[in-house]
Amino acid sequence: MDIRFEKNHFFIDSVSRIFYRMDGQLHSLETGGNKNGIQTDLLVSGNDSGKRIEVEVANLSGQPAEIVLIESLQIENWEAFECGLAWQDIQVMIQGRHKNDIPSVVTLGKQDESMEDALDGMTESGIKNQSRKAENGKYVTGDTLTVFRGNKGYLAVEFPRGDRYYCRTAVSLDENGPVISAGCEPGIILQPGETIKAEPLILRTGPDWQPLVRSFAEEKAACLGSRRGYLPVPAVFCTWYYYGLTVSYADVKENLEWISRKKLPYTVFQIDEGWEVTLGEWKPNNRFPVSMKALAKEICSTGMIPGIWTSPFIAHASASIWSIHPEWALRDNTGSPVLFPMNGTVYQVLDITLETVRNYIREFYQTLTNEWGYRYHKLDFTRAPVIYPWAKKGNPALAWPEAYRLALCAVREGIGEDSYLLICGGLYDASVGIADAQRTGSDVLSMWASESGGGKAVPCTVKQNLMRFHMNAWWANDADCLMLRRQRYMTRSLNLTLGLLNDEEVKVMLLSQYLSGGLFSQTEPLKSIDQDRLREIRHLLPLIPLVSEPVLFDNTRIPSRIRVTGKDIHELVLINWDDTESLPITVSASEILNREAEDKQYILSSFYSEKWIITGGCDSFCIGTLPPHSAEIVRAQVYIPGKPFIIGSTGHFALGGELAEICESAETISLIPQKPLPFTTEYRVLLSDGQCRNIRIQGTVSED
Question: Which of 284, 148, 152, 146 shows the shortest CA–CA distance to 207?
Fold first, then answer.
């Protein structure tokens, strides 16, 4: 199968084949062939910039066959992949199925920190995995999107669906060059007379990677639907990242009262893990002397939406569900329950391939929503039933992603279309069209580096969030909770209670929330947080629809320059990841706008350094230096003489983009925000006559 792309100098000599198990033996078969009654067909369509590969498998034999792997594309040696570069110099962007995978751009010939990220990933609890190895050496694996950089362009390997079968693009690395394989893993039993189609594979090329990634995100949204924008994006107060499993009704009550007293702009109050007797026994424990229904009413009385944490796919061995329905447990080949370890406890897993389990899930969420009154649902540990490929499914005709999607559909049917669903830790592609929001990174801690050496550290989690920017086409990206507190010593014997970020590092965490373009979530004991740190949320609220796009393929481990666009907003965020050295900062309007400079003048204004300039599009603007672990944001505006402009602000990171109108008359100037501002903000305004004036807008939050 020869695939040639004329415009971008890619040529691929590939085979396509399937692997299936019959009579206890593993067999392989190239597409277009017939073996043991298993028949395959291949269809390749497209043009010079895009190809679509479709594979169909039919069981014409008289016995069942397990379809293990369908390789739609198999490049068996480097000579079969021509892109104008030696294989050692090829860069590859990979993603991952779960939040704890670490998306990366790697150079195939370099064993550096970027390659280490791509090979390692993390477990659910934040501990680094062992490097992935194949028989012929290490390999990196992407999910439904992988991008290769050639000499004169980019090649995207895409699966526009991914909701039925696991999809992956694997690049094996050895001394002879990489072997590239792209396909899907059905893992289902194909009965005699049945036919299945592989997940379609699309190859796209172009001179730049950004349009390829955007096209992928838009096509998946079109294929699977998207709930992005269906419900308002919330500002959430979450109890987890301080109280943890020790959370109590008294903790909830204290923060509810503080939010009401201060008029803090949260729209959701979400009770996280720790309210329940145990996972699977969904009743309030003795730290919650009131019913969860009564607590939901208390939250509603403050004007906020009640939110609740659950993990529907796992349950503790002591939960009554197992004595009532032992047949619902996911089991291994010996008949023993599959075990899911988490936070020092081991849980059993529900078999979501069973319709009876999905009926139970639907009824459970109907109760939480319609009887208890919770309209914001955070689902956790949702990947538990789909990370054990060797587990014995109750329904072998369902592939894991398909079963996962059906289980999420049961949740959605239970909570209804008007409840907000945040999914944490599950499959990405199978969630599209069901989730309102999705976690894009591992759990965070309020420290730059984890003392245990695990993955819960700022650089890693921010990298995960930045490199999953394209998912904002499907839902509101959730960068996890913002922690602003200063706390050097643990309370409640919990590492979660620490607040060790310095003032520069807090800037990075704030901008990580801003760059997510999704929901805002905070977790603090509000009564004890320093007022200057609490006021930092003024940089993020009100929420503004934004799109961020990191600069990739620039040989950096973590993106350090990220473009932000919104309605009349063009900004560049700069982050210094170095631990010791300050970074000189120079930017230009053309870099911020990511296009050739027009014959215009621009106002460039920086947020933290409070510098501004009127300059040409290509002219460099020197802001100064950026300390280690710090960040800055610069806005570009087309300068029109005789018109007023915002050139500085103590408030929102949008640097005036949060305003609906700037009105200037002969004697007065007024600033009208799109939405009420939570904290009092001062703006620096460049007037039409070239003079500057400071204008203050009173906030809604009580700052006494």
Answer: 152
Are 200 and 161 spatial neighbours (Cβ–Cβ below 8 Å)? yes
Residues 240 and 242: their CA atoms lie apart, in Å, by 6
Helix (H, G, I), strand (E, B) or coil at 362: helix
630: its two tokens? 């710090």
Count of CB atoms within 10 A of residue 355's CB? 13
* C-alpha distance from residue 308 to each of 98, 239, 274, 372, 373 (Å): 22, 10, 11, 10, 10
Q: In terms of Cα–Cα distance, which of 44, 35, 91, 31 is closest to 65?
A: 35
Using CA atoms, how far apart are residues 110 and 429, in angstroms rounded to an integer?
A: 30
Sequence ranges of the chain with CATH classification 2.60.40.1180: 560-639
The alpha carbons of the chain give a radius of gyration, in whole angstroms, of 26
β pairing state of 376-379 and 305-310: parallel
Say if residue 542 is preceded by a cis peptide, omega within 30 of 0: yes
Tokens 């349009």 sit at which residue? 211
Cβ atoms of 247 and 292 within 8 Å: the answer is: no
**In angstroms, rounded to a whole number, what is the distance separating the alpha carbons of residues 428 and 161?**
11
Spatial distance between the Cα atoms of 298 and 275, rounded to a whole number of angstroms: 16
CATH topology classification for 560-639: Immunoglobulin-like (2.60.40)
User: What is the DSSP secondary-structure string of 491-524?
Assistant: BTTBGGG-B---HHHHHHHHHHHHHH-S-EEE--
Q: Which two tokens stand for residue 277?
A: 């007797």
φ/ψ of 102, rounded to 5, equals -110, 105
Euclidean distance between CA atoms 95 and 110, whole angstroms: 18
Contact call for residues 572 and 563 (beta carbons, < 8 A): yes
Beta strand 339-342 with 437-439 is unpaired
Prediction pTM value? 0.95
Of 352, 401, 465, residue with least CA distance to 143: 401
- Listed in sequence order, the DSSP H helices in 96-192 are 113-120
d(CA 683, CA 620): 25
- In the chain, list all ranges with CATH 2.70.98: 2-224
- Note whether 15 and 1 are within 8 A (CB): yes
Percent helix, strand and coil across the chain, each to the nearest 5: 20, 35, 45
CATH 2.70.98 fits 2-224, yes or no: yes
Three-state secondary-structure class, residue 353? coil
Q: What strands, in cross-sheet order, belong to the sheet with 630-638?
A: 547-550, 561-566, 569-576, 630-638, 601-606, 612-616
CA distance 610 to 4: 51
Q: What is the mean pLDDT of each run of 10 residues along the chain (704 residues)?
A: 74 91 93 93 88 95 95 87 88 91 92 86 48 55 93 93 94 80 94 96 94 96 95 97 96 97 96 97 97 98 98 97 97 94 92 98 98 98 91 94 97 98 95 97 87 68 95 96 95 93 97 93 94 95 94 95 96 96 95 86 96 93 95 96 95 96 87 93 94 94 84
CA distance 50 to 585: 39
Question: How far is it, in rounded angstroms, from Cα 265 to Cα 527?
Answer: 15
The answer to whether 423 and 439 have CB atoms below 8 angstroms apart is yes
- Contact predicate 407/384, CB 8 Å: no
Cα torsion 336, 342, 345, 351: sign: negative
Residue type, 101: D
Whole-angstrom distance, CA of residue 680 vs CA of residue 66: 64
Which CATH architecture group holds 235-536+543-548? Answer: Alpha-Beta Barrel (3.20)
